[in-house]
UniProtKB/TrEMBL annotation:
Keyword Zinc-finger tagged: no
Compartments it resides in: Cell membrane; Membrane
Protein name: Probable membrane transporter protein
Alphabetized Pfam families for the sequence: TauE
Bilayer-crossing regions: 72-92, 98-116, 136-155, 175-197, 204-225, 264-285
Membrane topology: Multi-pass membrane protein
């Protein structure tokens, strides 16, 4: 019972982050399931089954708050579903010994990308309002869907920064559209895992616990997306993902590092993570001061010159 409660809290926390940042539910949940020794394919299957419910509720909540661009959902979601099904069947065919470090490498790469992307650049806003073309969204969806299934998460970490980097869609609609289209990805990935695995290794209680936590958090996250600074949240989540998956890799048969080597890696990661968080917080506060100063200057400008 205690384990189910903890999984529900994991699902709640992961969905709060995902709904506010447009990424990290799958990456965070799968990382924690791997950390407690779950089979990689079963971990990804468990998370994707839970995501069918959480993404549906999250999408409805984002729609109610006006955070969804349905054209983007269609253009990226359908190719994403194709990629997710392919990735699920691919992962199901790998042995546990091969899949665990492979998945950790994918998750670690995504964590590094999230940390660097949001710490260094924040959220770009150039080209806002220009249309996002199918020739950009379709390949993006295909790749993001494949990575999502094989890595146990990746739809948001691949899709959200790519669309934000284009500067063509405002952040809240980027996050809402990615979260909503993820429903298609979760359904396709789950079908792929059932084709490849059946129900082997999938614990219905774990799925339900993750689902309950995510469903509770989804409407809260859809509201928070207008208020939580994504730059700071991205740095925080990226650090967690990097630390956890570095631990998995260092303990794997591929590396099997000694305790001393592991501790050195952990200390370095903690220091870099702390520096990234501090930088993101300072950058966010500086941006807020600049915005307030610009608003104040506009209010004090004379109405006209004779």
């Amino acid at each position: 019972m205690r384990q189910l409660v903890l999984l529900a809290l994991v699902g709640l926390g992961a969905q709060l982050v995902d709904g506010a940042l447009g990424m990290a539910y799958g990456v965070t949940s799968t990382t924690l399931l791997l950390a407690i020794g779950t089979n990689p394919a079963a971990a990804s299957a468990t998370v994707h089954l839970a995501e069918i419910g959480t993404t549906l509720v999250s999408g409805l909540a984002h729609w109610r708050f006006g955070n969804v661009d349905w054209k983007v959902v269609a253009k990226i979601g359908i190719p994403g579903a194709v990629g997710a099904f392919a990735g699920a069947t691919f992962l199901s065919g790998l042995s546990t010994e091969t899949a665990a470090p492979v998945m950790s490498i994918i998750l670690l790469s995504l964590g590094l990308y999230i940390l660097v992307r949001f710490t260094s650049f924040g959220l770009p806003k150039h080209n806002l309002g220009k249309p996002l073309r199918k020739r950009f969204l379709a390949p993006l969806g295909l790749v993001a869907g494949f990575v999502d299934s094989t890595g146990g998460g990746g739809w948001g970490p691949v899709g959200t920064p790519a669309i934000l980097a284009s500067g063509r869609l405002e952040p809240r609609k980027t996050i809402g559209s990615i979260d909503t289209s993820e429903f298609l990805v979760a359904v396709a990935a789950s079908i792929g895992f059932f084709v490849g695995l059946g129900s082997e290794g999938i614990d219905a209680g774990w799925v339900f616990a993750l689902l309950i936590g995510g469903v509770i958090a989804a409407p809260i996250a859809a509201w928070l997306v207008r208020h939580v600074p994504p730059r700071v949240l991205g740095s925080a989540v990226g650090g967690i993902i990097i630390l956890t998956n570095t631990r998995t890799l260092l303990r794997s048969d591929w590396i099997d590092a000694s305790d001393g080597v592991r501790n050195i890696f952990y200390i370095v990661i903690f220091l870099v993570w702390a520096a990234a968080l501090a930088y993101s917080i300072r950058a966010y506060l500086a941006e807020r001061r600049e915005e307030r100063a610009a608003t104040s200057d506009k209010e004090t400008e004379p109405e006209g010159v004779a």
